[in-house]
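Input chain follows. Return structure tokens only.
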Amino acid sequence: MGRATRRMAAVIAVVGSPALVAVPAIWMFCADEQARQWSIVASLAVVLGCLATVALRQRGTGHRSGADTFAELRPVPGNTPQASGPPALPARLPARWPAQLRGTAAVFCCATAFLGFVALAAGDAERPAPVEGIAAAGGVIQDVRVTSVRNSERHNPSRGHDFYTATSVVALPEARTGRSVPATVSTNTPEPLRPGSEVTVLYAPSKPGLGAVQGKPGPLRASLDGAPLAPGARTALLLIWLLGAGFLGGLQFLHSGGSRTLTRWTKHDRAVRGRCTGDGISQLAPATDTGTEQSGRKGTSTKLDQLVITTDGGEVRFVLDEATDGYAEQLGAEPLWLCWRARQKAAQQLTSAVLLGDSGWALHGQMVLTEAERLAENNETAIPGGAGAPVDARREARVWDPRAGWPLRVGRGAMTAAALALVLAGLLATTSLGAGRWWAAAGGVLCVLGAVAAETLSTAWRATAPNGSGEESPPSSTTAR
């Protein structure tokens, strides 16, 4: 079942993520109204189909807890050479980047969903009625002469420049006869208009009786082409999307360990034998900072989801980027290698680490450097490839990725909220709701927030629990077996 779950999670990620990211991209860059609407509906249907697949999978297998999926995803022991004493370390460790890429993509998709609703609300799924008729009659953008102005009013916003609104009569040249046809338009200009002034309008030379729409050339061209967003708004939203979602995705990548992943042994790596004896949560005191000490301010401690590894030199914490409740019971008392990179950078408190079970699995995480240094001072560690920690090129380790089991443990509340968000997105992409667009978009954002909150509610108390005095909690304060 573990292999099927991993395969299902990979397929859903490969199919669903591009479909979700395609929605705002299509909305911003596709000018053809029919093609845009059908493409967005098809993309949303793909994402909705992914949710339905997860729901059907859970219906067949049942909803699982994190500890249950953790156990199911445990790699099947391979054919490893047997030897007396502890098994040798593999010469090469499995990469961690697939799990990191999945987490980064998940954050990028969530940020895309938020910005997507903003983009959908800022535009309109259909051309306004006057523009639709003018475009159908062969509309053009042209500067025309103002013949009279009334109800001119100056506006002085708190930000930006003053502008003037008025009800103006303009002369529209008729293509067939060449005579001018008067048309009343609502104008919005940076300078007050007078008879004889010129303004840019969209009108149909073959049917000037349809009237005209005044505006700037860029937005008028976008309306004529059927684009839902003006060029300036599209550019701004695109930059916010790429920079914002990319920044949040990068933070997630760094939170999961960044590029500091153990894949090949170096002279800076250390290894020690141990067993997992507990799991839970503890606190990591903030790094000592001279400026903070002088000002008398206390830094904020960090809460760690961890496994407690007991070695001959004492207990140390192996940190994961997800809740670890029940993991120790699933690991059992299997002997294992705890390996980490002892090289320390300035203000670095955690270092890359990996657990290597004797049955052939590898679980990537991080380790508290002060605890690693304590083991080194007690001469409890060995250098991989040296005495006490031999390396065998024939031995292989298979990565143990707990988060690959998300299709079995995602909550029904999260899936329901996500499905409702997809419905609202489809409504915004295909229907002109007028002023109600922003209300519908706000509802979509709340649904996305609800989906994220419903998925993390069971562990949210961990991040909001009181930190107490801010002292660093010892590993033994966790739930031990």
